[in-house]
Amino acid sequence: MKTILNFSGGKDSTAMLLHLIEIGKRPDKIVFADTLMEYPEMYNYIDKIEKEINQKIIRTKPKNTFFKWFFDKWSRGRFKDRIRGFPFVVSPCWYQREAKVKPLEEQAKDFDVVYIGYAKGEEKRIMKSKKFKYPLIEWEWSEQDCINYLQKKGLLNPLYKKFKRLGCWCCPKQSKKSLEILKKDYPALWNCLIQLEELSPQGFNTNSNLNNKLNTV
Fold first, then answer.
1. How far apart are the C-alpha atoms of 162 and 183, rounded to whole Å?
2. Are 59 and 49 in contact (CB under 8 A)?
3. What average pLDDT does the segment 28-43 reach?
4. How confident is the model at residue 207 (pLDDT cuts 50, 70, 90)?
5. What's the rounded Cα separation, in Å, for the pair 147 and 132?
6. Which residues form the domain of 12?
7. How far is the C-alpha of 122 from the C-alpha of 146, rounded, in Å?
8. Does 178 reside within a domain?
9. What is the SS3 assignment for 182?
10. How far is it, in rounded angstroms, from Cα 215 to Cα 202?
11. Which of 10, 94, 180, 217 has the fewest CB atoms within 10 Å, counting from its CB?
12. How many CB atoms lie within 10 A of CB 112?
């Protein structure tokens, strides 16, 4: 059977990948869906994991960048002819669909098994298909188990020293703490986010703007 593994660079998918290799179940293909909006450390980490496992990690790119989608206009509905701006926080992220879901689905078409890194406690996320396998759930590994495993190996993504959750630096669903770190440690990205907020019809998100959210910073 041909196997493919969805690799995000996060603790769960990395722990899954390394342990599968340890037990003799090396995936035939490993895919990282690059949103092009990742923190710089993520790319260095992927290079490090490639060297560790001595296997190429395929990096996909979205057909349209975040900025292309941001400035494109709605073609129908109540927002017709208005630029999209930031994804709405109350609905599935359109950029996640375009930059992650679709590229990963395309890569997996010719494979028999897709390894997905959902940890114990995330059983509700399981998709009912014989093609999808969830090794961490089978092993009963929690998110903390994955962290402990990677720390013992000295291979935990350094971004976890700053963030509890990893993702796009422009995500309107991120926490206040995450935004504080963005402002402090990545001023160029923060300034870009402020400029985008001014151009977005709904601001940064529909609940609050960046200045209000960080009024204590």
1. 12
2. no
3. 97
4. low
5. 23
6. 3-162
7. 14
8. no
9. helix
10. 19
11. 217
12. 13
Distance CA 11, CA 160 (A): 9
In this structure, the number of other CB atoms found within 10 A of the CB of residue 213 comes to 16
Q: Looking at the DSSP assignment, which residues form a beta bridge with residue 30?
A: 5, 57
Which helix (H) or strand (E) segment holds residue 113: the answer is: strand 113-115
Burial 67-76 (b: 16+ CB within 10 A, else e): eebbeeeeee
Residue 60: enclosing H or E segment and its boundaries?
A: strand 57-60
Q: Would you call 92 helix, strand, or coil by DSSP?
A: coil
- The Cα 16–Cα 11 span in angstroms is 9
138 with 25: CB under 8 angstroms? no
- The three-state secondary structure class of 81 is coil
Q: Which two structure tokens, joined as six digits, stand for 183?
A: 């402002």
| Structural domain includes residue 39 | yes
CATH of the domain at 98: 3.40.50.620
User: What six digits make up the tokens of 194?
Assistant: 């402020």
- Residue type present at position 133: K
Specify if 187 maps to a domain.
no
